[in-house]
Design goal:
The protein is built from 5 helices and 4 strands. Helix 1 packs across helix 4, helix 1 crosses helix 5 and helix 3 crosses helix 4. Helix 1 links the parallel strand 1 and strand 2. The radius of gyration is 15 Å and the shape is globular. Helix content is 47%, strand content 16%. The relative contact order is 0.18. A 4-stranded mixed β-sheet has the order 1-2-4-3. By secondary structure, it is an alpha/beta fold. It has one domain: Metalloproteases ("zincins"), catalytic domain (Collagenase (Catalytic Domain), 3-Layer(aba) Sandwich), CATH 3.40.390.30.
Amino acid sequence: MIVEGKIFGYKKKLEKLFELAGRVLGEDFSCVNVSVNFVGEDEIQRLNKQFRDVDRVTDVLSFPNLEKSADESLKNFDGEKVDGVLFLGDIVICKKKAKAQAKEFGHSQKREVCFLALHGLLHLLGFDHIEKEDEKKMQAVAEKILAQFGVQR
């Protein structure tokens, strides 16, 4: 998977995490691109207000490029590839919020950033948590991936 964006020292770690997520989900991410960016509180609040009509700071936002369900294979989107690469979408993480949440939950900032990035990736792949059953499914997948990656709580 190609991970682009302003993620400073997390690029290699997120690439490895996302590759593991692909294997766990049975997806081939070799020709997949995702953008991940760390932003400040003002920027994430502006984006949250603009795109979700929620005027507050949040930890992570996802902007999917595909209309995909969680059970749908990425192979169904081969026609969406540009120069052989499928762009999943954008993930935006508030680094200050991630740091505060790591402290609040008693785990490392690395674990929190991995959790938020994976949460964003799962949204790009069609997972959601509006309904309780969907939330359980998304949470179980995330915990399985994070455990295999070695960043549990």
